[in-house]
Amino acid sequence: MVLLSGGLDSATTAAIAKHDRFELHALSVDYGQRHRFELEAARRVAESLGVVRHVVVSVDLAQFGGSALTADIAVPLDRADDEISRGIPVTYVPARNTVFLSLALGYAEVVGAGDLFLGVNAIDYSGYPDCRPEFIAAFERLANLATKAGVEGTTRFRIHTPLIRMTKAEIIRRGMELGVDYGLTHTCYSPNSAGVACGRCDACRLRRKGFAEAGMKDPIKYLTKSGA
User: Within a domain: residue 71?
Assistant: First the structure.
């Protein structure tokens, strides 16, 4: 079971799971995010990887608001690397990965999948608390306590986070080794109406920095030149 956002990290995570000979089921979540282009990217990535089934679930977190991704709050632009790595930004969506993993767990229990893959990263990331190893370990314990399969011992749930200790450049290099087409992915938090990445939000800046450090060309288009 792969949580597939359509971004660079989740696409790489899915490719790693496939390389490790897992049969892939994918889950994407329409949560009212402003960057809804990622859902189409998730569909493209799922198709390219030949997943058994790709399910898109709607859970409107925009009803709660509280984040620049789900409410009328400006997405931060042009932040320096040290700013991005300091504190929890307004793009944090309250309890997002807890909600997403809960949905993935329900889907996994139905199809008999004991292995859940999530593309979180605790190095080149924006300080989200639900991307940390401590959170993943706690949710794995919960998964085995809160499910019929876990309680009866028919399935032992494991949360796989293969990217959690990798830099963005290392993630990109690994994905390229596995044949990931990063031109299919969408990363930007603030794309234009045509879905073109802004190049200035934290997500874009981390992605562009990763490709630069990996010595590779990013195949997607941006509204601004690198470093602008």
Answer: yes
* Phi/psi at 110 (5° precision): -65, -40
Total domains, the chain = 1
Please indicate, yes or no, if residue 174 is contained in any of the structural domains.
yes
Examine residue 228 and state whether it is found in any structural domain, yes or no.
Answer: no
The single residue listed with the structure tokens 């994918």 is 26
**What are the pLDDT tens digits along the chain (228 aa)?**
999 999 999 999 999 999 999 999 999 999 999 999 999 999 999 999 999 999 999 999 999 999 999 999 999 999 998 888 888 999 999 999 999 999 999 999 999 999 999 999 987 666 789 999 999 999 999 999 999 999 999 999 999 999 999 999 999 999 999 999 999 999 999 999 999 999 999 999 999 999 999 999 999 999 987 654
55: enclosing H helix or E strand = strand 53-58
Q: Say how far apart CA 139 and CA 75 lie, in whole Å.
A: 29
- For residues 96 and 61, the answer to whether their CB atoms sit within 8 Å is yes
Q: Which domain holds residue 197?
A: 2-214
Domain for residue 143, yes or no? yes
CATH of the domain at 198: 3.40.50.620
